[in-house]
Amino acid sequence: MYAIGDPLETESEKPECDLHRLILEFGKHVAGSSQITAASVFDFCASETMSARNAIEAIFIVRDFPSRIRSFLRVIAGRTVVIIAVDQWVFERDIERGFLGEASVGTLVFPYTALRGKRYLHTQEVALKKRLILEILENLRLGFPEFSDRIRIKPEYFMYEVLVNRVRVFPPLAQCTSTFMRDSERGSKPNQTLKGYVEALEQLEKDGKIRMSDGYIIAPRAALSDTQKSRIWLTNLSRMAPRTLFTPIFEMFPQILNLFSQNLEGFQKLQTFKQWKRRQDNSRAFVDPQKYVFVPTSHGLVSLADRVSVESFVRDMMLHGEKGRVKVERVGGVLNDVYLVRIEVPNGEKRLLVKRFKDWSGFKWFPLNLWSLGSAKFAVLGKTRLEKECVMSEILRDKGFNVPKILHVGHGDRLVFMEYINGENLADQIKKLAIARTSKPEDKKLDTITRTGELIAKVHALGVSLGDTKPENVIIDPAGEIYLLDFEQASREGGDKAWDVAEFLYFSGHYLPPLYSEEKAEAIARAFVEGYLRGGGDLNVVNSAAKIKYTRVFSLFAAPAVIAAMAEVCKKSMGAKGQR
Fold this sequence. Notes:
The protein is of the alpha+beta class. It is built from 19 helices and 18 strands.
């Protein structure tokens, strides 16, 4: 991290070289009787070969400039120079709210040289970067809603994200941007561009907009409704529109001159869309900004840009150089791919689960959406479900609940590596209960159901809805401890707690014989409801689970008599409340 607060160098009106002096003199001529507040030059490709042929862009901020905005093309000291003169009021509105889509201030996000008004330019640079950082954080919250308040961000992310966005708007900046990124990654010299972002971040921290810890930026969770999310998305889109329109007007000419002066043939080829697209998509020379965005796991922070295979994870994170035999077997998954990895080492065996999150936009999932219409909302995108799985697991683990540890996240490949919990599935216990001759209250299996109800109620008390509470997602380890699994449909806000109760009960009924099982259905429901209420659960939630919008959803899984018996228990629980 850079130390902020060091005094800027004493400003000098004396240009560094004859070229800058001549540019400044021409700027004075353009300004006429108006005062030049500040002037800068943008020679982004100065470190590249043939830099003498690259055009230079000079910006003059002029107080009360009658023309508001004017541009000139001149050859000065053998260099092609594009001079843009802009009124100070217009320039500062572009800083504050993107008045011209940042067309007049865009060079402040690149390395620039101040010819005049160094302090003024620095102040405006930091103000611009503060606004850009807030916009990026908003977009990050929308793009990763579940991760938003748990991700850790390095300042480099904002610098690279802004640069990449500008290349997307205007591809000819790609070559110079990649050069700057390479130099920045090497760290061969102080990065003044990054220093501006660090100072902007420190000011935002003082304003209470962000929090900084151990060199990472943490953005507080934004409680955004769907309407607010749409508003933010539209706001950011409206900012991009003028940026897309005006940026080429200001920057296209000098960049095309660069290309034309260096290679006429290359310039002609660049006229085709294919060439433009190729230059834009040449990502090998670029730094992925998400390399500097991290999510927490039980093994530490993992970058969003991280890509890791099962083999490499086992070799690097599990074996740690030891020799071992690895077996990978598929253990389930229709909507997701789930694999059990067995690692045989000299002193025993290690196990872990790997889950690959697939999109559910195909025909296999579409009927389920229709089937549950009006009862529950499902997260369909693999990226969204991966986020929910990781975030909810960490939240519940932090609160003391037994959940599998998240060992690693391969966001690019939608892979989650998690701890394997050895134990018996609650669904298997219910199956045993289904074939038993009786279901006495002292049955240990019913006690486990009671404890599960109590556990789900405590989860609900945190404001969390699990979204998928099938008995298969409950594991009882050899010591009798209950583990909750599968949080890809969980939600911290706007979830349906009644769905959690209904799904557990009616899915349990799926394992009961279709005939003469009403007694066992009632016993299971009473055991669960007793535990749920003992854990502080809401009676209204229990009663709501009996509504037809839930019972009809599970009519394909359990016998009508079984569902009716369980629903009746939920209704009677509400009646018992009135008798108290």
